[in-house]
Design a protein that fits this description.
The complex is a heterotrimer of chains A (491), B (323) and C (346). Chain A has helices spanning 41-49, 71-76, 94-99, 110-124, 139-152, 169-184, 196-202, 224-232, 288-295, 318-323, 333-337, 344-351, 362-375, 391-400, 420-435, 447-453, 476-490; strands at residues 3-12, 15-25, 30-34, 56-61, 64-66, 79-82, 157-161, 188-193, 205-210, 213-219, 249-258, 265-273, 277-282, 303-308, 311-312, 326-329, 408-412, 439-443, 456-461, 464-470. By secondary structure, chain A is of the alpha/beta class. Chain B has helices at residues 3-31, 39-57, 60-84, 89-108, 133-137, 142-160, 162-172, 174-179, 184-210, 222-232, 237-260, 267-285, 288-293, 298-308. The radius of gyration of chain B is 20 Å and the shape is globular. The chains are: A alpha/beta (491), B mainly alpha (323), C mainly alpha (346). The complex binds adenosine-5'-diphosphate and magnesium ion. The site of magnesium ion has 5 residues of chain A, from helix 1.
Amino acid sequence: MQIELRNIHKHFGPVRANDGISLRVQSGTIHGLLGENGAGKSTLMKILSGYLSLDSGQILVKGRPVSIQSPAQGIRHGIGMLHQDPLDFPAMRVLDNFLLGRGSRLRQHRARAKTELLQLADRFGFPMDPEEMLSTLSIGERQQLEILRLISLGAETLILDEPTTGISTPQKVQLFATLHRLAAEGRSVIFVSHKLEDAEELCHRVTVLRHGRVSGEIEAPFQSAQLVRLMFGQDLPPSERATIPTGQPVLQLDHVTLPGPRFSIPNISMTIRAGEVIGLAGIEGSGQRLFLHACVGLVRPSSGQILLDGQDMVGQSYHHLLKSGMAFLPANRLEEGLVEGLTLAEHCILTDRENMPFFVRWSEAREKARQKISEYNIQGTPDSPIESLSGGNQQRALLSLLPSHLRLLALEHPTRGLDVESARWVWDMLQQRRRQGTAIVFTSADLDEIRERSERIYVFSGGNLSGPVDATETSTTELGMMIGGKAYEIA
Amino acid sequence: MNNELLRTLATVVAVSAPLVYAGIGETLTEKAGVINLSLDGSILLSAMGAFATAYLTGSLFWGFVVAALIGAAVAALIAFASISLRQDQVAVGFVLTLLCADLSSFLGNPFVHKPGPAIPNMPIPILKDLPIVGPILFSQDLVVYGSFLLILLSWLWTFKTQPGLRLQGIGERPEAAFARGTNVNRLRFFYTVLGGALVGIAGAAYSLDIKLGWSHNHTAGNGWIALAIVIFGGWHPLRVAFGAYLFGGLKALGSVMQRVAPGVPTQIFQAAPFALMIVALLLVSGNVLDRLLAYLPRRTRQRVTSLVRSSPPAALGKPFVEE
Amino acid sequence: MKLPRQLADIGLTLGSVLLAILVTTLILIAVGAPPGEAYRNLLAGALESPVKLADVMTAWVPLSLASAGLLITFAAGLWNIGIEGQIVMGAVAATWAVRLFDLPSLLYIPVVLLAGMAGGLAWAVLAGVLKTHGNVHEIFGGLGLNFIAAAFTNYLIFGPWRPASRATMSGTAPFPSTVWLPNLGGLRVSPLALLAALIGMIAVYVALRGTSWGLKLKAVGKNSRASQLIGIDTTRQMLTSFAICGALAGLGGAIQTIGVYHRLIPQISGGYGYLAILVVLLAGMRTVWVPPIAFFFAAVGVGSPRLELRMQLDSSLGGVLQGTIVLFVLLAYGLRVRLAERKSER
Ligand SMILES: Nc1ncnc2c1ncn2[C@@H]1O[C@H](COP(=O)(O)OP(=O)(O)O)[C@@H](O)[C@H]1O
Ligand SMILES: [Mg+2]
């Protein structure tokens, strides 16, 4: 089905997420939408599917202008979208998820829907148990269900927003095969990604977005260098690897078993040394978060020992460990890291545990905040509410609030949602910490970041830990294989 | 089975009926993601409204209609404040609790302790002669039969129909329901008002049937118990109904105890339902249960836990904003 | 920037109050009562004489103390509905101390007041522990404890603490006059009680504005998960805020016994706890607004019984007026925020 977008504008307050985008997608093709984080891809696709309203512009389906005001209208025009994080119902069954939103009849027709779901699943080779709770499925399986659901609703145009981020390599192979098949059946597929290799492998044609505008459109075969230029505006210089000598062991895990809600991770042994960077790879929800939590005492292992500077720390409270020089930076900055509604100065008071007089000295606190603002180059004032800062500045604020001496810093997705500039700045900051002897453990969904930034890599896969892998010797493909569950052969 | 026990059980079924209406009404509201905290006040006001209407017109039917309208109107106010204005649901609900209670006292003043009409008993032919269940379930009145029907219908609606799936969806993950073409806020409004109407009927069931007549603070306290029952019942209509009967049963037990052991201070029976409410909530939400269950074998434990435990709709109390 | 906004706030509040009065007037007309006369009685009943004014101040004391306590729990994001029971248990504990000791006034009164604070504190911490350790929402824990406290008071009055003559609804036997709070020239109001309420308000203001404890409390109230990760002991913050609120409420309860009724009566709190929640909501959690609003509410409360005496109307009209005002103010604020959002969207 042919789709055309003409001069789409959409802004959020001052942010021009889409600034006059035009795009044409031919039926029977896989059309890539490429761009770095924040380029405006998701916004554009939400507009096309009716999830967001546009400020101005026009949408044409099969050459005729249409108005798509809601997702229901989107589906009526044959446009279905698989959102970046699947918009489904984890607390309900697979079949309920499949049924929900199919018309407004009274009866459910469960049996009929079940047969249809199983037939569709069979056709695409997806394993599917209709009665299972969705929460027990992997992200990849949830995507598969969504794709089946959209197809059964009659979607002629399928939008997939960053579908390869959270899934295993075999699932990705299967996904690509499915998309080829859908295109061959005459449907159009819009494949949204910030990963070059995915687009190169899959798409017939690629549109690149940059800062809310179209920066170029290319037919296959693609040249990586050209795509990179369109995405970032210049060639990315190869980042050099800092060589910082590692020191004494800081944290030692000795046959540790971690209890998770769905699975436990058995028998982890690992030594983290001062100044070292350890990267944790894996599909989201494979246990990385649990591991970080255990490192800083937020989760208590069910067996085994964790030694901090040679002393067993199991059972010590998180707050005690904070005082011993541990720190944890969560990925949800506004949900777990900062307190929405408080100012930067107030955050300075709250995080300065050594020096917290009962009666607050406001001028002192503002002065301290001002120092941090200039030192960490934060765009804001001591009295600006923390939520008014942009994502990159929030991350800077979080880093600035860490105590000056740290033994171990555990970070969850340290550069998620940041622009390239801020991301690089964050890593510069972390390198400084390393030179002072801080050990760093971090998770990331970006394998390139993990490969470039860490020395040793551990891979989590469905409740198992494998590795370590030497970061200089491994490849993204190898890591991908390990994530996909081939861990045991390598370890 | 002896007659007295049967009579007691029949009473339990009857006195629990208002709690069933209120509990299931609130369950529907909360399943949609909205908290109507005003139950204690709206039950009072609708009980008063029902009694006054029936007293003045002589019509029980209009009494119930007015009560349902009052409950629905209060709920609509909460829906407007929380859905349209995105105000704190708890704050608005609490203010309405007090306001409705005072309003019921003020407007109901002329009707205090007046004799009024009552729902007549209406045993169902044939069924009433069944052994055991006949006298317990089928020698009641229309209000009680209605409560049975409500339990069944609300369960069927929520879990067995297409609109019921949507109802679960808007309480679990409104943005996902929206992506599937649901008008989340309109549906939330609808279920809040529907739940409120059922709460209103609960009020009428008190003043026209279970606790006849009107006096100041006639039903005070029952609204809070109904709210607690929704949590105890894990937002599941059948379990909520079970909770209502459990409370009704314990109340009946209290009055039996009062006869059997007259030495026990009566205040114990005043306080018991609320102490029980706390204990029940401790059991279903605290980790007390986990500690107790830890002694059971693993399989049994999992089964018991899933039976007793359950979590609220994930988006309960959170406004939904279309982007 | 700031001043016009405050003016707008005041305008909005006044508008809501007028609307609330309009609604109450309609209700009065609906029941066939002359509204003008009703309001005149309400006003006169509260303010016509020094005696009445003193009564209003007497009601202002427990209301302010409870409101001050609630400012603390609201700052921590807690809905301490259990405050009603905390006032009651403060009164019970005070009565217990009165019965237990027999001291010279200078010692007797402080001991009894402290006992009252301890009683309220204990009852509040119980609700707090139910929340922090038992996962029972404070609304339900607190509410259950309110009903239990009321039943317990009744039990004491009709059981172990009944007067020697016979048990009645009028409460325990009067306390010895050595423990009565001294009052001002035959009026009901006690300067000591006023002082206590004033100190309570100021202490709460300072604690929330100028201490790191208050800042931590606000952090917990706004985002308890992030506060925990930042290094704040959220459980301790919540429990201390319950404790302080309970102590203030308990003090109010104790003052009701030794300063107003000179005995323990059923319904010793008479809804001051719930009313205080309305006061704080109406004040938008801003400390400086609490004393005047508490005064207004106290005046309505003291004036409304006259409706019953003179016009055969139920005194709950006062509650209707208070509730309607708070409701409309909440709605008006919601409306303003939405309109501002609409504007910025464009
Ligand atoms: N709901 C929203 N409110 C405010 N800003 C938003 C919203 N959604 C997206 N943005 C902003 O719009 C820009 C584009 O975002 P998005 O379309 O998600 O980019 P992409 O999908 O390409 O990573 C970003 O700067 C983002 O912060
Ligand atoms: Mg995106």
